[in-house]
Design a protein that fits this description.
The chain is mostly helical. The chain has one domain. The protein is 33% helix and 0% strand. The chain is built from 8 helices and no strands.
Length: 204
């Protein structure tokens, strides 16, 4: 019974976090309106080596030395709801959360020190270049239930902040398309439960 309750709690956490995934600017990872270095092929299907240089040195090291610092050349740490909080989790807690994951579980790479970074949950290479299959379709949390309540509360909070500073108009916008560059789906909680299932004492 306790395991079931904790599993439901984990699913609720997934829904709440996912509701704010789209409090971003007008672009979605993998669907930007400008050229993205995550799309690494030319129209003829050949590799576009210029895109590699966005993140990599000539010897294929990382231009900023670390994984997270390379990502934040373009992306802010608070790209979506919960991202900044995940980046602050200590390596010790990350190891604890991942304890019990099956040996054949999906690869979730960590930082050089064992922490979480963007690539822990997201793919960053073009699936046409590496055998990393993006999700077949994006997912946006429903506007009802827990996710809808979180979305409404965020919009109200932003409006109050804007009003306090003498600003008006639309201050909160939410994505209309979900990212495809995820290691597992978020619609059923599969991705989030890779770590958050530890709430129930299991990594599965």
């Amino acid at each position: 019974m306790r395991r079931a309750v904790e599993h439901v709690a984990a699913r609720a956490l997934v829904a709440a976090v996912a509701a704010g995934v789209a409090v971003v600017a007008s672009t979605i990872a993998g669907r930007a309106t400008v050229a993205s270095p995550h799309h690494m092929t030319k129209p003829d299907g050949s590799l576009d080596m210029q895109t590699c240089a966005t993140c990599h040195t000539p010897d294929m090291g990382l231009v900023m030395g670390s994984r997270l610092d390379t990502c934040t050349l373009c992306h802010v740490e608070a790209t979506h709801s919960g991202s900044a909080e995940h980046l602050r989790v200590t390596p010790e807690l990350v190891a604890q959360a991942m304890t019990g994951r099956p040996k054949n579980a999906v690869d979730m790479p960590l930082t050089e020190k064992g922490g979480i970074w963007c690539g822990t949950c997201h793919f960053y290479h073009d699936p046409k270049v590496l055998s990393e299959a993006w999700q077949p379709q994006g997912w946006i949390p429903p506007s009802s239930g827990v996710s809808g309540a979180v979305r409404d509360s965020l919009a109200a909070r932003w409006s109050r902040l804007a009003s306090a500073h003498g600003e008006s108009g639309t201050v909160a916008s939410f994505a209309t398309e979900g990212t495809l560059q995820l290691r597992l789906p978020v619609s059923d909680g599969s991705l989030c439960l890779q770590c958050h299932a530890a709430m129930g004492g299991s990594g599965r």
